[in-house]
């Protein structure tokens, strides 16, 4: 899921630009939009059943009619929201605001900030031309959905997934964290292509998280679509072994 962050001061045209961007992006895949409301809390209509469910302590209260579904969530955390959107198969997520969270961003107006991909683009098309420069946010389920979406499944008999973690204790050694830079991406693409060429494998999608990852956190999301489980197991085993020997064992 691509994260496209739009930031700027109030009344600079961010919302209008985002609306136009959504209209163009939806031709490429499913789109979600998240807005930081700050201290302007969203007003939930009082007395409604869904409101009462939420007030009673439901983590999520959902109302469904013949046109839409509306969810009230008790978890106002951006990462949790992004995880749910990615798990649901969202291809592109536009975030308005959250200036202190350092995603690569588009600036509307004269705001000075870091991590700027574009400043005051004339059209949404400019953003689409630079999609590769925006951050990729993934989950295990998101990788699996992307794999199913992009590969034929007529001959498929299984999807094998692997979720690697930062192991805290190995023998007598303790690992508090591991650091990974974007330089690992070319290796991941090589390993992914190698796995996809394994006889019987229909497709592979691999994602490696970057930055400082602490003990217990996810490192990798690997998914392989294959005709038979034996072929998937073989390709996955080779992929994991190569990643460990060429990257992880050097930490």
Automatic annotation (TrEMBL):
Pfam families: MoaE (PF02391), MobB (PF03205). GO terms for biological process: Mo-molybdopterin cofactor biosynthetic process. One of its GO terms (molecular function) is GTP binding. Residues 3-109 form the Molybdopterin-guanine dinucleotide biosynthesis protein B (MobB) domain. InterPro entries: MGD_biosynthesis_adapter, MoaE_sf, MobB_dom, Mopterin_biosynth_MoaE, P-loop_NTPase. NCBIfam families: mobB (TIGR00176). PANTHER family: MOLYBDOPTERIN-GUANINE DINUCLEOTIDE BIOSYNTHESIS ADAPTER PROTEIN, MOLYBDOPTERIN-GUANINE DINUCLEOTIDE BIOSYNTHESIS ADAPTER PROTEIN-RELATED. This is Molybdopterin-guanine dinucleotide biosynthesis protein B.
